[in-house]
Design goal:
Blueprint: H1 21-26, E1 37-43, E2 50-52, E3 55-61, H2 63-75, E4 80-85, H3 105-116, E5 121-126, E6 139-140, E7 147-148, H4 149-166, E8 170-173, H5 180-190, E9 197-204, H6 211-217, H7 239-250, E10 255-259, H8 265-274, E11 279-282, H9 285-296, H10 302-316, E12 320-322, H11 326-329
Parallel strand pairs: 1-3, 1-4, 1-12, 4-5, 5-8, 8-9, 9-10, 10-11, 11-12
Antiparallel strand pairs: 2-3, 6-7
Helix pairs in contact: 2-3, 3-4, 4-5, 7-8
The chain binds ligand PBG.
Length: 333
Amino acid sequence: MAKSSEKLVLRRRPRRLRATEGVRRLIEECSLSANDLVAPVFCKESGPREGIESMPGVFRHNPDDAARFALDLHDAGIPAIALFPCLPEGKKDAKGSAGLDPTGLVPHVVREIKERAPGLLVIADVALDPYTNHGHDGVWNPESGEIENDPTVFLLCEMARVLGEAGVDFVAPSDMMDGRVGAIRASLDAAELERVGVLAYAVKFASAFYGPFRDAIGSRRGKGYLDKRTYQLNPANLREGLREAQLDEEEGADILMVKPAGPYLDVIAKVRDQTLLPVAAYQVSGEYAQIVAAAKNGWIDWEAAYRESLLAIKRAGADLIFTYFAPSFVGVA
Ligand code: PBG
């Protein structure tokens, strides 16, 4: 061991590249910008904005407030938002019929936003869970207990068309039914909605990290975890996820998404290697809640932690990130 006064003979000193702000900036391999971020926006029919207890800092907005919030985000540099509705229980049924209503909440909010912020890209989820009284993403057969694939796909096609006609730029099927990307693409094209893109939740895991989101849209049933394992992926499976990404690409997806993001960086990296399409990642509600909760306790630095979490998702290979931190990133409250 060298004494502290002595010099080692070192031919490699990697710390030279970290010694000053200038060199650190020059050799930075990736960076975050508002251009990379999609802000999820929760909407509801009426009333003042409501906080979501398990997602401090995130709110449900009435259509007018949602449009105002979207405009603020756009003015601050966020290129896109993703809309999620929270419906009163009385409007939900077993088949999610309210999701097909062209005068429903999401089409209404889309029109409001497009009027005020025409340049803002609007993405809307295609899945039945905000509209079903059981909280599943598909049609539930009470006799078999199954989520029925093909009847669900027909409804999703209809929903995608309704959303396209309302003016969304991308529909985002988040349901994980087989064959839905191809069917939705065909249904949009048949309705002369070629301009509407499909951002597929291609690799979506059955994750415990969706809990707070289910509070936000009111799809949580009981205290526990709603079991979606017959359609969402097993968190243990990488190859199965890559296969899903491949299928969605073949079926005509424009963008492939991996979800959640932080616990699945290996999946993001592999999807990035496998495709030439843009890759999106969704930093989900539970990932947000973890950082916010630890920061509220004073256990981590909020700003540094969330920026690091997003940078890591970028480094893994995501071109765009859905994140509840998007408003904070651009200073919109
Ligand atoms: C449902 C949907 C979910 C999310 C986005 N769309 C949850 C689920 O599958 O239950 C989760 C987003 C989040 O947790 O932030 N189709």
